[in-house]
Amino acid sequence: MSKNLLKFLFLLATAVPIFAQKKNSFDLICERTSSVTAHKDLPKAIKTADSLYMLAQKPSEKIQCLILSSELYHHAGELKKAICYSENAHSVINQINDPEQMAVVTRLLARQYRQVGLYERSKKYIIKGLEASGRITDFEKSNEAAGLLNQEMAFYEMELGNYSNAIRFIESSLKYFERINSRNENRTAAASYQLLGDVYFKLNDYPVSENYYRKAESLLKVGSCTLGLVYNGLGGIRLKQKNWKDAELYLKKAEKIADTSRSLKLKKAVYSNINDYYEGTGDNFKASLYAVKYVRAYDSIEARNQSFTMKGAEIPKGKSSKKNGHMNLVKNATIIVLFTLLIGLLVFFRSKQKKQRSKFRNIIRAQLNMISSRSNPPLKQPHDSEFSNISVEEIDEKDSETDRRRNDSLMTSETESKLLELLEDFEKGDLYNNKGMSLSFLAGELNTNTKYLSYVINQHKSADFKSYINRLRIKYIVDKLINDEKYRQYKISILADECGFSSHSKFAAVFKAVTDYSPSAYIKYLDAENQSDKNIHFPEND
């Protein structure tokens, strides 16, 4: 008898925890589906929630499943389905007296309707939720629900621009959170601080705004959506202060979170600030890229909101038309910026190509004219000559400004004319290709002094001695390239040596400064234009 009694007591003792386990297993599965499965495999989590609903026996279990499905679809970005499940849960709750679940569902509906732009409907559920939160018997759950619903009311007031009311509701939410000891306390309090940061930012009180953003940052884990909004807010403050370095640092952190987040609100806010950053730093190309990203996020939000336009739903006056106008403005601005950049690039490259071709043809025409009139004295080069203002190779002796000025008492006009004739004869030869060419060397060749020679070159050749010599050398080698095809087969170093330059690099630098082409590109252009002899004719430039 005593043996049977022991068996009975054992079964009774084990039945209680088993019964409790069965009672809590539904809650455990819902919690695991929401916190674990949803992050690993969202479609699987949604199917699990549907299966749980089919197995639910009690109204409270059905409500729990409907709330779970709503939250999962919300996380997936399918707000239309999310609101459907929330409304179904609300209908079931109306049939029973459960203020705790009523507070949960009304807050969920308030947040979802706010996110689709139906603010007055959101407010209706906030008021209903606050009434329900006052009837919750559990002290901590009551205060937590009231705090979250006050947060929602602050969002509503911000949308209407009532910032003083928003601050009042946020401060109320923080007072409610201080009364509870919940694992979600830090996260919910951080959301209130972040919201306060946003409000004071809009009021242009940046020190206070930053202070609240810092409080929120200290309570948040890496990667949360709220932390992304905090970094974006700090970046926005730095933009206002034109502190570009710190602004870039915070906005990069915000963008990293936004790019992996499903929150369109976060994406829109971050891309807008990054666009402003690149506008401020003058990088129009990157600014255009982020303008496009902003428009995509904005369009997605508007498309989502459009699907929830309901008959009789009250939207604050002017809100819809203002948003549509803003959206069109952003679209048009983006299209104009991108189109202008494209046209600008095309015009730039086209004009540069046309200028180069024009200059190339002018150079060749100048060479042909020079060749055909070698028997005549060359005309004085004007200051805008094809070969003026060029970079030249350094030559040993440097003529000073004083050397270039003529002392009339020392040099007669006859001497000046004679020296000019000697220079014209010098130009007809190729002595200027001598690698030892210098001002004193040429003065000795012409039986004059360096002062006289420097003055005549400066006055009649529109150049100093270095530019004058290098000009003659480039004219010489261009003449050879035009009229003797074998020169086009030579290496650049041979061409450089041919006209007296001491190195390949110096020759290439002077050649490009004169012609706008490197020597190799110039030769290719000659071949392409079929310049086989000096009598080739070019049409006039447009």
From TrEMBL:
Q: Which domain of life is it from?
A: Bacteria
What Gene Ontology molecular function terms does this protein carry? DNA-binding transcription factor activity; sequence-specific DNA binding
Query: Which segments cross the bilayer?
Result: 329-349
- Residue ranges constituting the HTH araC/xylS-type domain according to the UniProt record: 417-525
- The segments labelled Disordered in the record are 374-412
Enumerate the UniProt keywords alphabetically.
DNA-binding, Membrane, Signal, Transcription, Transcription regulation, Transmembrane, Transmembrane helix
Q: Which residues form the signal peptide?
A: 1-20
InterPro entries the record matches: Homeodomain-like_sf, HTH_AraC, TPR-like_helical_dom_sf, TPR_rpt
Which protein is depicted? Answer: Tetratricopeptide repeat-containing protein
Upper taxonomic lineage: Bacteria, Pseudomonadati, Bacteroidota, Flavobacteriia, Flavobacteriales
